[in-house]
């Protein structure tokens, strides 16, 4: 198994987009035009942002995704390369434009409105070297997009003894097929499995479907977590919120990094104390990311 004594190796499987982020005074009404205060154009998507955070914190990150050879896609790949994220592009031969996320961030609250096609334009076939990619990592993270690929990679990770983390932003078709191969799931309040109406319901559902360690993040409210024999909450540092876009992605990238550095993320070896420590450290990084506009400014200065 890869060593975690040096730079931990993370494999991130999921969505990559081109994010066009505008800072506005308010979300425009129908037929209204307005001038944005600021603009950021960057590679985005849950898996891509998590990989960028993992790399920034000192890990070696590889993103398994679909981007393509369109000029916009080449810009995405260049941006990720600048951030130290290696890309395995399973749509490299496609000349179609990549998924573009149009994001409006309200200056007064940091709340965001997002429109994107996400992964709907690609159905990815697992690559021939998938096992090698999995075997080379210390930890694998999945955002639930490109589900067939995610299930194939998570199955191999479980067989190879590599710990797996799920970014549960929302319940997606096929999530039930991924859960049996997930060791740690950290979900948003929008993650609503069938029959689950509360965070407690979601945690119970995950446990019943084989996930040993799970948590639900709720913005600035405490993170609720559950393990095999215990549970509790982790406080989230209070910050002046400038932009919540990508905060959950950063949380997952930081969590994966903490777990990989600890070398304790394999199911059966993670303790409640270590899980809480990893959640607390990840929450600190995610809160720092919320204090500045865009998905990159938090990386400046350390």
From TrEMBL:
Gene3D superfamilies, per this entry?
3.40.1190.20
Output one GO MF annotation: kinase activity
Keywords assigned by UniProt?
Kinase, Transferase
Which SUPFAM superfamilies does the record match to this protein? Answer: Ribokinase-like
The record's annotation in InterPro entries points to: Ketohexokinase-related, PfkB_dom, Ribokinase-like
Q: Does the keyword Ligase apply?
A: no
Q: What is this protein called?
A: PfkB family carbohydrate kinase
Query: What species does this protein belong to?
Result: Streptomyces guryensis
């Amino acid at each position: 198994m890869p060593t975690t004594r040096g730079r931990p190796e993370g494999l991130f499987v999921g969505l990559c987009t081109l994010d066009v982020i505008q800072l506005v005074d308010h979300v425009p009404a129908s037929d209204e035009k307005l001038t944005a205060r600021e603009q950021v154009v960057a590679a985005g998507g849950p898996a891509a942002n998590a990989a960028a955070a993992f790399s920034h914190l000192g890990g070696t990150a590889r993103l398994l995704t679909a981007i393509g050879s369109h000029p916009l896609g080449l810009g995405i790949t260049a941006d990720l390369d600048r951030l130290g994220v290696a890309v395995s592009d399973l749509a490299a031969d496609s000349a179609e434009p990549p998924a573009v996320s149009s994001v409006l961030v309200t200056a007064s609250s940091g709340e965001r409105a997002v429109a994107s096609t996400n992964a709907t334009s690609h159905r990815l076939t697992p690559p021939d070297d998938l096992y090698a990619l999995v075997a080379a990592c210390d930890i694998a993270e999945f955002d639930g997009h490109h589900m067939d690929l995610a299930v194939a990679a998570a199955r191999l990770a479980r067989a190879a003894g590599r710990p797996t983390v799920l970014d549960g932003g929302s319940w997606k078709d096929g999530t039930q097929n991924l859960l049996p191969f997930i060791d740690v799931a950290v979900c948003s309040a929008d993650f609503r499995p069938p029959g689950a109406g509360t965070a407690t319901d979601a945690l119970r559902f995950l446990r019943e479907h084989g996930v040993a360690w799970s948590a639900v993040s709720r913005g600035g409210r405490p993170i609720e977590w559950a393990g095999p024999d215990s549970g509790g909450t982790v406080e989230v540092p209070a910050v002046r919120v400038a932009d919540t876009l990508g905060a959950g992605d950063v949380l997952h990238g930081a969590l994966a990094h903490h777990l990989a550095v600890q070398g304790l993320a394999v199911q059966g070896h993670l303790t409640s104390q270590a899980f809480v420590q990893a959640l607390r450290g990840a929450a600190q990084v995610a809160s720092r990311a919320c204090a500045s506009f865009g998905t990159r400014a938090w990386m400046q200065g350390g």
